[in-house]
Amino acid sequence: GSLEAGATGDIMVDAIVQSQTGSIRMVAGGVLSVSNGHQVSAGGDGTSISITGDTVDIGTGNAAAKSIQNSGSGTVTISTSGGDLSVDDYSVGGETGLITINSAGDLIEQFSGNSIASITTTNQVSLTSCGAIGEAGAIDISAGSVTASAGDDSMGSDGGVYLNGIGTLTLSGITSENGDVDVTADSLVVDQAITTTGETSVTLFGDTIQFGADGDVTAGDVNGTPGSINVDTDVDSGLTIDNGTIFKTSAGQVSGALINSTDPFKDSGPTGDALSDSNRIATIAVLLEDNSDSGLQSTNVGIQINWGEGDTSENDPQDGDPPGDDRAYVVDSYVT
């Protein structure tokens, strides 16, 4: 059957706690900890493990027996009511069940950082923290997908999401208030939006990275504080971007359609009179090949035009707004 345990103070698990056929629920008013080498495990399909403490510390398990373990489609939920939540190597495991981890404190943290998965399931992992997630060391995750939400402006808590995916990791929605997002994996799939606020950055690294149509990335406050986006793959041609993907900062936005275009200035051309000795003003219509599926288009796109004449010693781009430099070799302008 099922097992329930509660205490107004601390609960320390220094043994094997198991329900072969049912669920397990533990609630502590103080610290709830599972010490290294010990385990809480439930009965698998249709069961759940629910762990709640003011602060929760989950120690090291092993590959065959995670410290908090459910099997089959059984779920795992771990929460803190006020303090931090920490995990270590092989701390939390499910086979095909959902894993949900919520911290009402400032952190979800990991003691080690050695690419041994602390959290494992073939299903989805959901991480929520009033503060940062993995700031002191990226959380090692092996999962079908992950969602994460970090930071709470209303409580003055800065976020930050730092993850290390083992194998292929799908990002199905990441938000961070006043904190960076930094995710590394062998292979990354971004199928839902990544959003940060404040002077923050989004950094993604993997052998391959694939952005879906809904995998937009927004860094910083779009109308205010600047942010930055950095995407890097370790394999040639390892980056795939859907035409509908939008990358956005306060400086502007660019769509996957424009990035993927083989002829981004198709149908651009002169609209004024031909240049002559007396007419040195060129009028050019710049049309961007930017038919993004979402209907949004790229904005504030910087362009440079090399006239092929003029002062060749002046190679730095010059402002293209009139009156400008009529002998500029390279003209700098923007499509807003």
State the main characteristics.
6-stranded parallel β-sheet, 336 residues, mainly beta, 22-stranded mixed β-sheet, elongated
How would you explain this protein's 3D organization?
The chain has 336 residues and is mainly β. The chain is built from one helix and 33 strands. The strands form four sheets. The protein has a 22-stranded mixed β-sheet that branches. The protein is elongated, with a radius of gyration of 26 Å. The model has no long low-confidence stretch (mean pLDDT 89).
Q: Average pLDDT across residues?
A: 89
Radius of gyration: 26 Å
Structural class determined from secondary elements: mainly beta
Distance between the termini: 65 Å
Biggest β-sheet: count, sense, barrel?
Answer: 22 strands, mixed
Number of strands: 33
Measured by DSSP, the beta-strand proportion falls in: over 45%
Portion in helices: under 10%
Low-confidence stretches: none
Q: Which outline best applies?
A: elongated
Number of helices: 1
